Backbone:
């Protein structure tokens, strides 16, 4: 069966990490951006990541962080994947990550069709990223719970499809993620505010509902080659 990978981002509490880890997910994200309502320190991220079982990957999210901050976080969560969600250039991302795998967020305008945002060009610029996290461009660098126009992006274009590098994010919820997976057919989906009862506080029932909705979509899609 087709299987879309799932990342739940912005966790801040032990109870939420344990609830997420009990589900059929692949990654958990910790926000190391001090201005976010979901921010945790590197030490807190390390303590939460220690609760994850094998094969669920911790992801550390940075926004315009300096090299010392990234190095300090990597030192205490050494098996994490890095995600850059600010204004970092390709060169800066590569330098900050070193040999570590990294993801790059593409902040797509909500009305992507009208603004002419070119995801193909963006993905080419960040070709060294393991994946492009396609998120809505909102104030505060993500987590705003607002989707962009999914139909404005040429998802079937070979330059997006060939490498399976798309992670769909931005305003996903248990109610709309099935449609998103069927339309976009991303390698993975990334949810934060859509499974919360308050900012930084995850709702276990909504997390479970989100995963179930993704799997319902998967059941209607052909297996990956």
Residues:
């Amino acid at each position: 069966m087709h299987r879309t990978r799932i990342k739940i981002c912005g966790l801040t509490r032990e109870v939420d990490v344990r609830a997420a880890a009990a589900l059929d997910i692949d990654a958990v994200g910790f926000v190391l951006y001090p201005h976010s309502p979901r921010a945790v320190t590197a030490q807190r991220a390390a303590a939460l990541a220690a609760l994850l079982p094998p094969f669920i990957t911790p992801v550390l999210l940075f926004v315009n962080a300096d090299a010392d901050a990234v190095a300090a976080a990597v030192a205490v969560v050494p098996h994490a994947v890095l995600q850059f969600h600010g204004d970092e250039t390709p060169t800066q991302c590569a330098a900050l990550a070193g040999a570590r795998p990294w993801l790059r967020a593409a902040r797509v305008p909500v009305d992507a069709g009208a603004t002419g945002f070119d995801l193909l060009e963006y993905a080419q610029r960040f070709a060294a990223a393991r994946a492009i996290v396609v998120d809505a461009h909102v104030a505060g660098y993500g987590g705003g719970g607002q989707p962009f126009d999914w139909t404005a992006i040429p998802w079937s274009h070979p330059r997006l499809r060939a490498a399976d590098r798309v992670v769909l994010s931005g305003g996903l919820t248990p109610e709309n993620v099935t449609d998103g997976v069927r339309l976009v057919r991303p390698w993975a989906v990334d949810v934060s505010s859509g499974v919360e009862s308050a900012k930084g506080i995850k709702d276990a029932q909504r997390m479970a509902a989100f995963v179930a909705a993704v799997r319902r979509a998967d059941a209607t899609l052909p297996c990956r080659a």
